[in-house]
Amino acid sequence: GIAFEETDRQTIISVSDNGPGILPSELPFIFERFYRVDKSRSQATGGMGLGLAITKVIAEAHGGSALAQSVPGEGATFQLIFPKEI
User: Fold this and answer.
1) Which residue from 27, 37, 66, 71 could staple onto 56, CB 3.0 to 4.6 Å apart?
2) Is 67 exposed, middle or buried (0-12, 13-18, 19+ CB in 10 A)?
3) Cα atoms in the Cβ-side hemisphere of radius 13 Å centred on 40
4) What is the reported pTM?
């Protein structure tokens, strides 16, 4: 699901799923270019491993950040956090 939260200082966009989740050992790397959690997927069957890297660059270009949390077997939540102009 998608959720929006707005405070006086920031806007948070969260996207959650109930998929297989991401192992804690993988989380530090998922925003790196060309990184794939599932090493068995080839370019022919999956993406290039650029989507999350591009997302992070765009968020940071706007003064924000991109975060991920996950519980293996229960899903993952990705957040984009943008500061509000003061």
Assistant:
1) 66
2) middle
3) 0
4) 0.82
Neighbours of 64 (CB within 10 A): 19
- Residue identified by tokens 């959650």 is 16
The DSSP output letter for 59 is: H
DSSP codes of every residue in 10-58: EEEEEEEE-SS---TTTGGGTTSTT--S-TT--TTTS--S-HHHHHHHH
The token pair that represents 55 in the structure block: 């997302």
Phi, psi for residue 13 in degrees, rounded to 5:
-110, 120
CA-to-CA distance for 26 and 59, rounded, in angstroms?
Answer: 21
Contact predicate 37/19, CB 8 Å? no
Cα 82 from chain centre: 14
